[in-house]
Design a protein that fits this description.
The chain is an alpha/beta fold. It contains 14 helices and 20 strands. The chain binds cytidine-5'-triphosphate.
Length: 416
């Protein structure tokens, strides 16, 4: 089943009686795990109040293109921050316009940007879907049909409309789909199917190397990037196994999660799971050293100095890249400087297909941050994935890997 967990949905609402269903749609999207922000056109505000949408979404509601404040800033005492429209477009994992009126569809088909919602639809790099709602004559009018055809050709997704009795008393096509169906179709927007039928093994999070039964060596990895990659791989249709060090994160949907603590446990779990997998992604921040001999009882403070003797842990990524046949192997390089050069060194040293280099140790990026950027370093060149939310970044990485695998399969077919 497709999932809305952790998705950011920008819900556009245009003027139509079906706007009364919008609060229910917000509720259903949120029940699925999505974060929802509403944008109202001027006409929509005649049918539904921003206050209602703010209450059900628990997020700011946006209405104006120029000099706007989110409405909730006005209605809820100012806790929400104003956000530029481009930032709002970037925020969205998907834009869904429901109900989409005939007028809105016409303006979108012309590529107009004369209000906030049309501007956001133009500025968004995320998928855009419309759920038309109008009188059956208006829907069947050739002008509307040709506008819809234009939007479809431009890659917009069409949800419905349904057929049946209408608010105006007529019967025919043009009814907005029910919120439950729109929520289901919205979840489906994230299913790319690019890795259909393939096995993907991913490591994530920190490791814990015991010093004694209560103390250990660990690091600041939150696991967010690896978990986001696992979710993105599942959305791409892969069979995903996530081997996770200790994190506070919930298991992603449709992913088999194996929890481990130490680097050795992670190594063992990876080698149990990786056979038959086509992709291995090492996103874990694995300890490079562990105490040689962890104490079996709690170490008491006796002397002024204490020396811990450490020994190298096995390199999981290099060991997987050395298998025959080896899966497409992706490593991460968290660097405080010289990202590309260091990533290139790791690419050669570990004999992997791709190193995703990222800058850590700067505010708002890296381990604990929500956003990150990656430099994908391969033997053939470098691709930059710009700074963006980790969930989007993960999808971009999976898309990149899927393209590499498809190219490889193409080459294999040519040789055959
Ligand atoms: N890795 C691994 N097993 C280890 C250590 C690292 O699989 N024992 C993987 C990580 O998951 C990551 C990549 O290797 O994908 C990181 O490479 P590494 O050279 O270990 O990075 P650093 O520890 O940052 O290296 P250095 O301190 O040498 O720069």
């Amino acid at each position: 089943m497709a999932t809305l967990v952790n998705k950011r949905i920008l819900l556009g609402i245009t003027g139509g009686i079906a706007a009364y269903k919008s609060p229910d749609l917000v509720r259903r999207l949120r029940e699925g795990g999505a974060e929802v922000r509403c944008v109202l056109t001027r006409a929509a505000a005649e049918f539904i109040t921003p206050l209602t949408l703010h209450a059900v979404s628990d997020q700011p509601v946006y209405q104006n293109l120029f000099g706007e404040q989110p409405t909730s800033e006005v209605v809820s005492g100012g806790e929400a921050k104003a956000m530029e429209h481009i930032e709002l477009a970037r925020w969205a994992d998907a834009v869904v316009v429901a109900p989409a009126s005939a007028d809105f569809i016409a303006r979108l088909a012309q590529g107009r940007a004369d209000d906030l919602l049309t501007t956001l639809c133009l500025a968004a790099d995320a998928p855009v879907a419309i759920a038309p709602a109008m009188n059956q004559q208006m829907w069947q009018n050739p002008a509307t049909q040709s506008n819809v055809e234009t939007l479809r050709r431009n890659g917009l997704h069409l949800f419905g409309p349904g057929d049946g009795s209408q608010a105006c008393g007529e019967v025919g096509p043009g009814r907005m789909l029910e919120p439950v169906d729109i929520a289901r179709l919205t979840a489906g927007l994230f299913e790319s199917g690019e890795l259909e039928g393939l096995g993907v093994v991913i490591t994530a999070g920190p490791t814990w190397e015991a010093i004694d039964p209560v103390r250990g060596i660990t690091n600041k990895s939150s696991g967010k990037m690896g978990y986001a990659i696992a979710a993105a791989a599942a959305e791409a249709g892969a069979r995903v196994t996530l081997i996770s060090g200790p994190t506070a994160l919930a298991d992603p949907d449709r992913v088999k999660v194996v929890r481990v603590a130490s680097a050795q446990e992670m190594y063992d779990a990876v080698h149990t799971q990786v056979h038959g997998a086509q992709v291995f992604i090492a996103a874990a921040a694995v300890a490079d050293y562990r105490p040689v001999a962890p104490a079996t009882t709690k170490i008491k403070k006796k002397s002024e100095h204490l020396t811990l003797e450490l020994v190298r842990t096995p390199d999981i990524l290099a060991s997987v890249a050395a298998l025959t046949p080896a899966p497409f192997a992706v490593g991460f390089a968290a660097e405080t400087e010289n990202v590309e050069a260091n990533a290139r060194t790791k690419l050669a040293a570990k004999k992997v297909d791709l190193i995703a280099g990222n800058l850590v140790g700067v505010p708002d990026r890296g381990f604990e941050a929500e956003d990150n950027g990656l430099l994908l370093v391969e033997a053939t060149g470098v691709t930059e994935l710009p700074i963006q939310p980790k969930t989007k970044l993960a999808r971009a990485l999976i898309h990149h890997v899927a393209q590499r695998l498809a190219a490889r399969r193409g080459q294999t077919r040519e040789r055959a």
